[in-house]
């Protein structure tokens, strides 16, 4: 179970870093699926 816990820790740290980055600089993504005029 050690490798699994290592992966979980890496994922948690990655998501935490990305969350803080998004809070600092919000990026607007235009999805082609939502625009259907």
UniProtKB/TrEMBL annotation:
It comes from gut metagenome. Keywords: Cell membrane, Membrane, Transmembrane, Transmembrane helix. The keyword Secreted does not apply. This is Biopolymer transport protein ExbD/TolR. The keyword Cell membrane applies. GO terms for molecular function: transmembrane transporter activity. It is a single-pass membrane protein. Pfam families: ExbD. Its main location: membrane. It is found in: Cell membrane. GO terms for cellular component: plasma membrane. InterPro entries: ExbD.
């Amino acid at each position: 179970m050690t490798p699994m816990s290592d992966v979980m820790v890496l994922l948690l740290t990655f998501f935490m870093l990305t969350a803080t980055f998004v809070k600092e600089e919000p990026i607007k993504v235009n999805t082609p699926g939502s625009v259907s005029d």
